[in-house]
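U., I forgot to send this yesterday:
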Amino acid sequence: MAKLTKKAKSLTEKLGDNQKMYGVAEAIKALKDLKATKFDETLEVSLNLGVDPRHADQMVRGMVVLPSGTGKDVKVAVFARGENAEKALAAGADKVGAEDLLEDMQAGNLDYGRVIATPDMMGVVGRLGKVLGPKGLMPNPKLGTVTPNVAEAVKAAKGGQIEFRVEKAGIIHGGIGKLSFSDDALKANFDAFVDAVVKAKPSGSKGKYVRKVGLSSSMGPGLKIDLTEVQGA
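Result:
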């Protein structure tokens, strides 16, 4: 059995009962109190869902705007021409282009958190499927990243909109802000994220949909959330 580090021992002692179910506000406060690092850690939520994403009718995926933002500067690339390209730049896009942007990405410049495209550009973007797909960056009309309104999409990406997608084991993870945020700001982000996942319940989900919810910080422990506090669970 591996020995616990001093920090892990200290956290374990502070937490006491590791089976305890926490209220959301209580868990946020506890993770802040337990913080032992100098950098601003991210608060992360995980949801265990009653789905098997290997079946198309049980896939859970969507976008949600976190009302308090993410605390991160999201780099956005936009495939657009002419007036749309100008609108994307005015809205704050970091890189806008067409074939030139395609070549740049093919050369390995993929340091973006979101890639957006106008519908007419998908013939160009489609050639990047093998590059953008594995990184989860391929523009998708269902997620609002293939849109004629690029300015709105850029502003959403910059303003706290994040994507969620269920993993093979039926789990969704998401970073919902920084520990330096106020407790109320983090609680608002938690509620918005969970609400979006609940509303994205697929037709093929049978039985209990939200089975477990946990909160953790980048370097902190995972705390179990009382499901009676989770709307729609």
